[in-house]
Design brief:
The chain has 186 residues and is mainly β. The protein has a single domain, classed as Lipocalin (Beta Barrel). Helix content is 0%, strand content 60%. A ten-stranded antiparallel beta barrel has the order 1-2-3-4-5-6-7-8-9-10. It starts with 34 loop residues before the first strand and ends with a strand.
Length: 186
């Protein structure tokens, strides 16, 4: 209790490649995804009705061989005005290293505050596409009983596009959320 105050965190995550630590060489294949992205999307399953949302995704690094993934979204009303907070996710993307070098195989984690944690395996397909399938999913007793997932990320004409499918309580994989986000930083 009598310990002196701690200085500010001495390491910086950055979505801006012009500042902070150098990008780890293993992440060069994921370079197009690093940045701060904002835009709009549409969602549905497992909600009762389809909905529109706005979203911000930050994909950043701190010089180590992984990317940090942070997403926050908010619902939009019929006039495209904010109508309430929505999904928040945090996670990490990590290329699989073989003999110290990154190939096209990927591992990723995603966790939400409503009680789900997902482990994804996938691969980069060319320089601007990443496709992942849930390998393991855990949820708290009161959390959404997610039992499967598929995520596709791509850079198309400078925008980050993604589609997220999910299965709940053993259902078939269904469209959950998709969006088009523009780079606003990085």
């Amino acid at each position: 209790m009598n310990a002196p105050p701690v200085d500010a965190y001495p390491y910086e995550d950055t979505h801006d490649l012009r500042q902070g630590a150098d990008l780890h060489p293993a992440l060069l294949g994921l370079l197009p995804f690093v940045g701060l992205w904002r835009g709009r999307g549409q969602g549905g399953f497992p909600a009762d009705e389809d909905y529109n949302f706005a979203q911000e995704i930050r994909i950043s690094h701190d010089g180590r061989p992984f990317l940090r993934f942070e997403s926050r979204s908010w619902l939009l009303d019929d006039e495209s005005k904010p109508a309430g907070e929505w999904v928040v996710e945090s996670g990490f993307w990590r290329p699989v290293l073989v003999d110290g070098r990154a190939g096209d195989e990927m591992e990723a984690t995603f966790i939400t505050p409503d009680g789900t944690a997902e482990l994804y395996l996938g691969k980069t397909i060319g320089p601007t596409r990443l496709e992942m399938e849930a390998d393991a999913v855990a949820y708290t007793p009161s959390g959404l009983h997610v039992t499967g997932g598929h995520r596709l990320f791509g850079i198309v004409e400078g925008a980050l596009l993604y589609a997220h499918g999910m299965a709940v309580d053993g259902s078939e994989l269904r469209d959950h959320m998709s969006a088009r986000l523009l780079r606003i930083g990085g």
